[in-house]
Each structure stands twice: as structure tokens, then as C-alpha cells.
User: What shape does this take?
Amino acid sequence: MAQARSHLGRTIAAHAVLITYTLIALFPVFVIVINSMKTRKAIFAEPLALPGPETFDLVGFTTVLQQGDFFQYFLNSLIVTVASLFFVLLFGAMAAFALSEYRFKGNTLMGLYLALGIMIPIRLGTVAILQMMVAAGLVNTLTALILVYTAQGLPLAVFILSEFMKQVSDDLKNAGRIDGLSEYRIFFTLVVPLVRPAMATVAVFSMIPIWNDLWFPLILAPSEATKTITLGSQVFIGQFVTNWNAVLAALSLAILPVLILYLVFSRQLIRGITAGAVK
Amino acid sequence: MHSRPLRIALLTSTLLASAFAAHAEDVTLTIESWRNDDLSIWQDKLIPAFEASHPGIKVVFAPSAPTEYNAVLNSKLDAGSAGDLITCRPFDASLELYNKGKLTDLSGLASMANFSDVAKSAWSTDDGKATFCVPMASVIHGFIYNKDAFDALGLTPPTTEEEFFAVLDKIKADGTYIPMAMGTNDQWEAATMGYQNIGPNYWKGEEGRLALIKGEQKLTDPQWVAPFTEIAKWKPYLGDGFEAQTYPDSQNLFTLGRAAIYPAGSWEISGFNAQAQFKMGAFPPPVPKAGDECYISDHTDIAMGMNAASPHADQAKAFLEWVGSPEFATLYANALPGFFSLNNTPVKMEDPLAQEFVSWREKCKSTIRSTYQILSRGTPNLENETWTASANVIKGTETPEAAAAKLQEGLAAWYAPQQK
Amino acid sequence: MAARKPIRWHIPVFLAPAVLVYTAIMIVPLFGTLNLSLFNVNEARETVFAGLDNFRTLFTDPRWSASFWNALKNNTWFFIIHMLVQNPIGILLAALLSSPRLRMAAFYRTAIFIPTILSFVIVGFVWKLILSPIWGIAPGMLDGIGLKSLFAPWLGKEQYALTTLALVSVWQFIGIPMMLIYAALLSIPDEVLEAAEMDGITGASQFWKIKLPLILPSIGIISILTFVGNFNAFDLIYVAQGALAGPNFSTDILGTFLYRTFFGFQLQLGDPHMGATIATAMFFIILVGVCFYLFTIQTRLRRYQF
Assistant: This one.
């Protein structure tokens, strides 16, 4: 009886903490979205009020949608993000497997070498990267962005994945070897399914900086046809911008797709964690 | 994939990439700019006018955000992917590009004759022999005020410092309006709309500015400390929490009618016209004493040059000739009221507020911002230091004398004429 | 030796794609840049080898060193706040979320992670709005609960601005430690927990005695990720306060100091050589931290595993 009550109390406390934090997490997003649909006067007069019949105004969205092809921008962002993630996960998992599975000369050194990349912002290499892309004729192509983001994402992916791969039981792999499976089969059919939760985690972490990056789209692919949505919405938030309707609308438009994308990924992520957890 | 002819072909195609609509035989020029606000003006007014008179040349305006422009442009120029036409910042930023061979010498352009030496000074070498950008516009500092508020309170635009503070006191006593819309969060407003706005009246415009460059005056001299002393007095007239008030905050405060006076640059005019629901007026920086000669900051701000690596030099030059023409001057000044043409040909402007600003050129002496020419060449950078100092002085965290002493010390650390 | 063992070709095959892409796109350009720190431009505009002169300037010239130490000090404070606020709260949230019978766990988990997916542009803009003394969301809310006097223009005050921005950054990134710890907690074998319950260890004491030791390696990872992330941080400060990291450089961290120096700002011209010098110094700071983690903390954590 007493135990049941204390259990109930604990559940309530847990919900209270989680609800509080959820409110803190969502409040700013809420502020942007409601205000993007209000008249300029109402934004300033009652920033927290919901848009009502008097204050409802979509002028921000019409301005933004006239200025640029947001659907194209969104597609560009999607292509770049998905392709980069694919390569980061594939190459990253392969390298992490090699590092965590085999003992060979220079293993530690290779691990350190691959980790160097998380210690220096890649932005510093901008000029050399740009020169390379110009020489290869890749400026203003999505390929340039995919290459850069793949390179940028690899160190962290290798770092996290090799930690997880060390935990995969040796018995399983050795059983596979006895059955005559090649190292490649062992990797793709035995190990990869087991580290799915870690890969989902890496996917989510790598996706964020790629989706939200402003710098490389600006330098490598600023043309209208290759603009990403983050770059497209940045046009409205420059130093000389006072059109808050447009700014808030652009921000809302930049939030929504990534939110949907995340909600889709999030299901995968959790499914991965619960189904494939290393137990 | 990486063979040389293909590489060149791809390189060219990148320059063309954004102009997929152009005909194959057309040459497409790309303009690099930080003026992303002007995108629609270029697309709808300026470029069509040029293309109509120059068949075979297409122009694409490709701006980036002002804060990133220098970094983005320099990276692109170094790597060889920058556009054909480069919008030039005044003085050293562009001079450096010219010295590195990134910008072409344009002294030979016929339309350069349309500009005075003063107009060209911001984009010429120190000896004045080469000019590498075609001047486009200058901006004038002053104060924009809410005419309805002034009428309601029975105020007239002040001409002297004393009147200025009397007006501020009256607005404050009335309480309906915040007397002045300015914040220090972004720091540059304090320096540009504060210090550089009212300063020329104290250091006597060009006289003081040139004396500083020659090393004959120091930033600790009374005429250079006085503007700091003045802006230090502004604090009580700014809105609550002005320390965290950003530049867009200030603009919105004023255009929503909550503040009465806005320390301004003329570039605000078109934005304010679109957003403010009340009548506006403008007055030049008030002089210290009645009868003093007045000086205004009429700052050469924007020009256009040519990427030395452009494969379309002839077409780019044709475009620049057009930028230097009276036709462009009229189009630009009227499309962007507040950006005043530097062309010798008088330009007729429709906008009353812009006319008010430009009328000060008749009665006051013009100068440019004191920190821009030569003095911001070293480390520490005088302009950036001035931002921090002005913000500190307005907030009261540094005294005018201490701020001036720090600036002087920083300047003397690397600038030989100030080391005597 | 080598002759006896056949070359295990699968190892290079597994490593090659990652190593090639990473070396070509990241390492070569980055080291090209860091190499610049050993050179300088002389009066005649020629690039000359300068040895360690640039580092001498950075650490001994009063102006450069004052800026550098200021940025390093601020950066350390930025990191401390993350370690004290972000990671404990992240662990707490993960622990609550992983309790087996919790309803709506999926909703909480998704919602709390949302700030992490937002771009810096959005985060900087919206928090400036909320904290703005003009717009009045924060002052209005404090007023609502009778605490108006607590409001200050935090982002504009030297003594508060950095802490405020660090907390905003915590708000944004709390999802990362939460998710990593959550994944680690879920992968604790059920048998271990059942055995603990048999022994009567449940609830909070189960967390402290059983789960926490088992997730220590993950806590190690998030600590080092936080360290690296914080010492590379740049965007939030840049978006909220600009490249001059005002007020009065009180929010200047190594990333903003580096950006300003390397790329230049406003009238200040970019100085690739001093910029590269700062970058190299940052690189060594992070390298020392990571090596410390790899060679002392991580090996010790391993020993306590299973």
C-alpha cells in the first residue's frame, strides 16, 4: 500500500519535471509560430497572444514565398542532408568497425587521426576547400556540399560508433567466422543491425549541423538553384531587416520541415533503440 | 572527369549556373553585394534598365548578408569563384583587394570623369593615381523625428546642443514617447549614429579628420573627447533596457511611433517610409553654440568594381560605365532614397525626407567618418575600438576621457604619425 | 613476421572510404591553414617564414594576449556552465524517461529534443526577442508573477551576457546528452536490473548504485563532446552578439576571436596568419583535453565495465 503510494508520488514528480522542461523547450518555438501569423502591430503589442480574428495576418508568408522558391530550397536541403547522412553512416561505420574489431599496427594512431577533425572547425579550411571545388568544377552544385558534410561528419561518427562497436559480443562474430562468413558479411549482417541504435543516434546528431549550416551553402553553393532552406531564410535576417512579419514567417518555414523530418527520424530512432538494443 | 578543358568549361558553367534562363550566346555577369535589402530593386528596376540598352549581357544580383559579406567575398576571390562585379566597401577593405590584384584599375573608364576627387577618394590608392571602383552613393547622418509627436508636444527641431537637450527633456517630461530610440547591444549604432553623427561639429569635419591622419591632433584633444561627453549625456533619454536593445529594436520602436527621435543614417529612409504611419522630418546634428558652422557626415559608402579574374572584362566594363552614368544615378537615388548619388550631374529626387537630408549639403560642410581612411589599417582596429568605446561611454561604464585615452593609445601603438 | 601473416585486405577496405574523404576534404585544407601560422607577410607584401614569431605575438604582445586570455577565460566559463547545468539535467531527464512504465515518454523525448534541431539563426533570434526589454516577453512574464524587479537587460550587461548565452546554449543542446544517456540506459541488460530488484535495490538507489556506474562511459563521451563542442563554439555568440562579441568583449570566446581575426570584420582586414595562429592554439587546447580524456579517464572507466 505504502509502496504503491510512493510509486504514484514518484510518477507524478517525474511527469511534473518532464512537463516543466517540455514547456521550456517548446515555448520559444511557440512564440515564433504564433507571431508569424499576426499583424505587425499585434506582434509588438501582445507578443504572447494567439492570433485572433483582428490580428490574424499572413502577410509575412506571402512576402517570403514571393521572394524565393522555398520548396526548391527545401528539396535541396533534403537531398544534401540525406545523401551526406548516408555516406557518413556507411563510411563511418566501416571505419569504426575496422578500428574496434582488428588489432593492427597503427590502430590507435589511426583512431587519433580520425578524431583530429572534431578538434578544429572545418570552416578554417574554407579557402582551400573552395579552391578544390573550383578546380573540380563543383561550385554551385549540391555534390560539393555533400562532400564537405560527409568529411565533417565522419570524425564524430567514427568516434561514437567505435565506442559502441567495442560492446558487441565477440562470441557472435566468432560464431559467424566459424560458419565461414567473410569479414564483410560479418560487418553488414551481424554487426550493423546490432549497432542500429548508435547509428540512429549518430544520424540525428549529424543531421543537425548539416541541415542548419549557413556557411558552406553561402560559400560553395549560393546560386538560386542550389540554395538550402537555411540560407534561403537567412536572406530575411540580415543586418538591415525590420520586416518582422517576413522574418518570423521565414523562421517558421525553416522550422517546420526540419521538425517533420525529425519526427519521422525520431520514430526510426526509437524503434532502433528498442528493437536492436545490445542486450 | 578532371581533364583541363572540362575543368574550364565547368568553371565557366558555374558562373552561368544561376542564369539558366539566359540564351547560350548571352554573357551573364554576377554582382557580389552585401545589400540583400536591395534585391528587388536590382531585379525589377536597375537590371532591366541596363539589359534593355545592352542586348547580349545578362546581369544577376547575388547578395549575401552584410555581416558575412567581407568573409564570403574574400574566400571566393581567393579561390576564384567570385562574381564579375564586386560591390566595394569604402577605403581599406577595397584597397586591400586592389593591392592583392583582385580588383581592376578602372581609372580609364570614361564615366570616371563624372565624379569628383572627393567622391573617388574612398576607392583610390593613397596617391590618388588609380581608382578601382565606380562610386555609387554616400549616406548622410542626422536625426529623424516623429513630426506628429513634435507637433503634439509643440516642439520645433533643435539647432543647437542646448535646444536639443531641452527638446529631449520636454519629451521625457511628457512621458508619451521614449525621447530617443537607440540601443547599445549591437555597439555599432553607438559609434555610427552617435559618435560619428555628432562628432564632425566638434572636430570641424575634414579639418580635424585630416589633422588626425597627419598626427597634428590626438584623440585625447578636447575636440575629440567632446563628442563622447555629449553622447554620455544621452543615457537618460534612451528607452528602458537600452543596453540589450538591438538595431532592429530601435528601428521598430521608432516606426511604431513609440519613440520621438531616431539618431539616423539616411539609408533608413526607404524602410521608414514603408513602415511608419506618421509624418517624419529630419534635422542635422545640432551645433555646440548658436552661430557655429555646421558639419555633416556625408559618408562615401558604396561603389562597384570589377573582379580582375572575370572572363567577361569588356561586358563588365560596359556595365560599370553605365553605373557611372547620370541615368543610373537618377534611377538609383530614386529607387533607394537616402543613398545619395556621388555623380556630378545633379539628381532630381522625389522623396521629401531625402531632399531634406541632401539640402544640408548646401548649408553645412561635408566630411566622412573619421575612422575610415588610413586610421583603421592596423591592430587594434580604430573603427572596431570606437564601437566598443562609444557603447561603453553611453552606458556609463567608461568615462569619455578614459575611452578617448584608450583609443589614442591603441592608435599610437601602430600608427607612426601618432607616435611623435 | 610479415611474410607469415597474409595481408588482411578487409582492414584497408573498411578504412579507405572514410580516410580518403576525410583526408582530402578536411585534413589537407585544415593543415594548409594551420601551416599559415608559421608564416607572416613582410613590408614588401611577401610571405616569409616566421617560425614561432606569431605565437610569441599572441602570447606576449599585451593586446593580443589580453584578447586571447579573455576569450579563453570566457570559453572556460561557457564550458563550466554546460558541465554543471546541461549534463546533469540531461542525465536527470534521461533517467526519468527511461523508467519502464512512464506514459507519454515518446512525447517528452521528442519535445525536449526539438531545440537541438533548430538552427543558430533561429535560436539567437528568438531568445533575443524573448529577453528583449522592448518586446517585453520576459519582463512581462516576470511581472505576471510579481518579480519584475528581477528583470535586467541581460544580454546588454557585461556581468550577465555570457552566462545568459551559455544557458541559451544549454537550452539548445540538452537533447544531445539526454539522447546518449537514454540510449545507454536502455541498453543496460534486463538481467542486471532484475538481479538488483531481487536484492531490493530499486528506485533512486538503483539509479545511483547500478545504473550510474554502468553509464559512466557514456557520461565520459558526453563530457568530451561538450568540451570539444564548447571550445569550437562560435555561431550562437556570433548570431546574438555579432563578431565583436559585445558588450565590451564580455562574450568573446575563442571561436569569435578566431573568426574576427581570420576573416576580418567591418574595417578590420582578415589576417590569415594570426588567425591560423589562434586556430593552432585552439587546436592544441582541445587536443590536450581529448588526450587527457582518452588516456586517463577513458581507460579508467573501461576498467569498471562489466
